[in-house]
UniProtKB/TrEMBL annotation:
Organism expressing this protein natively: Nocardia transvalensis
Stated name of the protein: Molybdenum transport system permease
One Pfam family of this chain: BPD_transp_1
Family: Belongs to the binding-protein-dependent transport system permease family. CysTW subfamily.
Main location class: membrane
C-alpha cells in the first residue's frame, strides 16, 4: 500500500505541471525584474534621502497606529463572531469581509462620505469638536484600519473556533468571571492567531494605496505614505520608485518569514 501511494505521488500529469510552471514564472518574473533593475550602487544614498525617510517614517507610524486600532476593535468583533449567539451572525461576518473584495478607491469614497466635513458623522465631528479627518495623518490611519481590519478579524475568529473551550468551561466552573476568563484563558490560547492576524493587518495597512489617496489625499510629510510615494516617483524618478518598491517587497518577505511556522510549514 505504501509503495503504491509513493508511486501515485510520484506521477505528475503534464497537463497540470505546465500551467503550474507558467503560473510560478508569471508570479516570480516581475519580482526578479524589480531586483534586476534596482539601482544597487546608489541604493544606500537613496534610502537615506529625506523623501524616502519621510515616507517610510509616516508609513510605519500610520500602519502601526492602524494595527493598534484593529487589535482594540477587531479582537472583540472576532470573539462576537466565533462565540456569541447573536442574530444575523452570517450577515455580520459578510459585512466584515466586504473590505476584502471592495475596491480600495470605493472604500475611500465611502469613508469620505461618512467622515468628510459634510459626511454622515464628519459634520458633527467638525461642528462640535472642530475635527476634520480627510486629508490628514489621522485620515491615513482611518483608511488603513478600514481595509486591514478584516485580515485580523478572520485570523482571530479562526483561532477562536479552533481553540479548545474546555479550559474556558473549567474556569467558569471555578467561578472566574467572563472577562477574567477571556483575559487569562481565551486570549493566551489564541495568541498565535492574534499575532498572525496582527502581522497581516500591519502589512496590509503598510501597502494600502487606493483608500488612502482618496480619503487622505497626497500631501508630503502628512499623508504621502510609501505606496503613494512610489506612484509619484514613477513619473519623475523611476529609480526612486524602484527603491521604494524594494522596501515594500522586503516588508512582504519579512511577513512571510514571520508567518512561516503557522501557515507555510503547516501545509507541507
Amino acid at each position: 500500500m505504501s509503495s503504491r501511494r509513493r508511486l501515485t505521488r510520484g506521477r505528475h500529469p503534464v497537463v497540470l505541471v505546465l500551467p503550474a510552471v507558467c503560473a510560478l514564472v508569471f508570479l516570480v518574473v516581475p519580482l526578479v525584474g524589480l531586483l534586476a533593475r534596482a539601482p544597487w550602487p546608489t541604493l544606500a544614498d537613496r534610502l537615506s534621502s529625506p523623501e524616502v525617510g519621510e515616507a517610510l517614517r509616516l508609513s510605519l507610524l500610520c500602519a502601526t497606529l492602524a494595527t493598534v486600532i484593529c487589535l482594540f476593535l477587531g479582537i472583540p468583533l472576532a470573539w462576537l463572531l466565533a462565540r456569541a449567539r447573536v442574530p444575523g451572525r452570517g450577515l455580520i461576518r459578510a459585512l466584515v469581509t466586504v473590505p476584502l473584495v471592495l475596491p480600495p478607491v470605493v472604500g475611500g469614497v465611502a469613508l469620505l462620505l461618512v467622515f468628510g466635513r459634510r459626511g454622515l458623522l464628519g459634520q458633527y465631528l467638525y461642528d462640535w469638536f472642530g475635527v476634520s479627518l480627510p486629508f490628514t495623518t489621522p485620515g491615513v490611519v482611518i483608511a488603513e484600519a478600514f481595509v486591514a481590519m478584516p485580515f485580523l478579524v478572520i485570523s482571530v475568529e479562526g483561532a477562536l473556533r479552533a481553540a479548545d473551550t474546555r479550559y474556558e468551561e473549567a474556569a467558569a466552573t471555578l467561578g472566574a468571571s467572563p472577562w477574567y476568563t477571556f483575559r487569562r484563558v481565551t486570549l493566551p490560547a489564541v495568541l498565535p492567531g492574534v499575532v498572525a492576524g496582527g502581522v497581516l493587518c500591519w502589512a496590509r495597512a503598510l501597502g494600502e494605496f487606493g483608500a488612502t489617496i482618496t480619503f487622505a489625499g497626497n500631501f508630503p510629510g502628512r499623508t504621502t505614505t510609501m505606496p503613494l510615494a512610489v506612484y509619484l516617483a514613477l513619473e519623475t524618478d523611476p529609480d526612486a520608485a524602484i527603491v521604494l518598491s524594494l522596501v515594500l517587497l522586503a516588508v512582504s518577505v519579512a511577513v512571510l518569514v514571520t508567518l512561516r511556522e503557522r501557515w507555510i510549514r503547516g501545509a507541507v
